[in-house]
Design a protein that fits this description.
alpha/beta; Spore Coat Polysaccharide Biosynthesis Protein SpsA, Chain A; 2 domains; nine-stranded mixed sheet; two-stranded antiparallel ribbon; 10 helices; 11 strands
Length: 355
């Protein structure tokens, strides 16, 4: 894993060197780690081994496992029973949203770090999370680079712009490519994000999101919700994990490959609208609708992107356009209905004017 020194000069030095000086009155923060897992015990073991190698060990480790995943649950029960810090939460509801929410319910630490089961944290990961939250009481959420391995090699590309929302509603991720100094952002990535318990009190991952085993953009919706509460979100590439995510062309929310299931594409498009809508002003919502239909992205195409990909995908480019727009239109209808019902309730609740 040679990229560590390229990302941060603190790899072999004290992990607090790149942060503001802490106040003398800073109290100790407890840090918990939440991992959602499903039928990947070998990767989960690598993840837990990485946590065991931390320079500062987490105070709590919550592993959320589906009760249908018998192999992982049995393996976890053995490991958790050997005097470890691991707490196992089992649930019968499928999907990432249900799993994340079960982890939130189980959290009792000051900071909750959320990672996927296919990541291995850098040895200074917990240390750097602690230092950031101790240094800045206004910090509600923290993300870092997830250095992605596609099954053959690490992605060594770099991108300066990370984790923000364009005026017209296009979300820019690039968390796996970020470099440089810590910077304020609007969006964190679910493979590597940490939150102050106070900032997420009463907040849950959005159960309206669609998907079978995963609900794409659940991290987008959650981080924007924390940001709307007025908390600062920060991205520091040195808060590093190694992400053994496999081939990106197998995921509907990040690929325009012909092999992607179009129903998964529709779900991802639906979820992107639900995730973004409350963050946008009325003017930005209008721009977002126009951009979604007539432009879009290569993954969730509008008219222009469908034409762009016709030479490579042929008529499939228009199938992708139809399924993406279908998901977004269904989401537009849902948020409009919710807004209308909210206004009706507000009018009914308003006191009658005196005659």
């Amino acid at each position: 894993m040679p990229l560590v020194n390229n990302l941060s000069s603190q790899s072999s030095a004290g992990c607090a060197e790149h942060l503001p000086q802490q106040s003398s009155g800073s109290s100790s923060l407890t840090i918990g780690v939440q991992i959602s897992t499903y039928k990947r015990p070998a990767k989960l073991q690598q993840c837990l081994d990485g946590l065991a190698r931390q320079t500062i060990l987490p105070d709590d480790i919550i592993v959320v496992c589906q009760d249908s995943d018998i192999e992982s649950c049995e393996w976890l029960s053995e490991r958790a029973g050997n005097g470890s810090q691991i707490r196992v939460v089992t649930l019968s509801s499928p999907g990432a949203v249900a799993s994340r929410n079960a982890g939130l319910e189980a959290c009792h630490t000051d900071i909750l770090a959320i990672i996927d089961d296919d990541v291995v944290p850098h040895a200074y990961w917990v240390c750097r999370i602690r230092d950031h939250f101790k240094a800045d009481p206004s910090l509600g959420g923290l993300g870092g680079r997830d250095h992605v391995h596609d099954g053959e090699r690490f992605d060594e590309r770099l991108a300066k712009n990370v984790g923000y929302l364009n005026w017209w509603g296009r979300d820019i991720g690039n968390h796996h490519l970020g470099y440089g100094r810590p910077r304020e952002v609007q969006i964190l990535k679910g493979a590597n994000m940490s939150y102050r318990a106070q900032a997420i009190a009463g907040l849950r991952f959005d159960t309206r999101l669609r998907g079978s085993t995963v609900q794409p953009h659940e991290d987008l919706a959650f981080s924007l919700a924390v940001n709307r509460r007025g908390w600062k979100l920060l991205y520091d590439p040195a808060v590093l994990v190694y992400h053994f995510a496999g081939r990106p062309d197998q995921r509907a929310y990040s690929s325009n490959a012909a092999s992607v299931d179009l129903r998964d594409l529709s779900n991802a498009a639906f979820n992107s609208v639900i995730a973004l809508w409350d963050k946008l002003t009325p003017a930005r919502r209008a721009a977002f609708v126009f951009w979604s239909i007539f432009i879009g992205t290569g993954v969730e195409p509008g008219v222009l992107q469908a034409f762009r990909y016709m030479p490579r995908l042929g008529v499939h480019a228009w199938r992708r356009f139809w399924w993406a727009q279908r998901g977004k239109i269904e989401a537009f209808l849902l948020v409009s209905e919710t807004y209308t019902k909210g206004r009706v309730r507000s009018k009914k609740a308003a006191p009658a004017r005196e005659q």
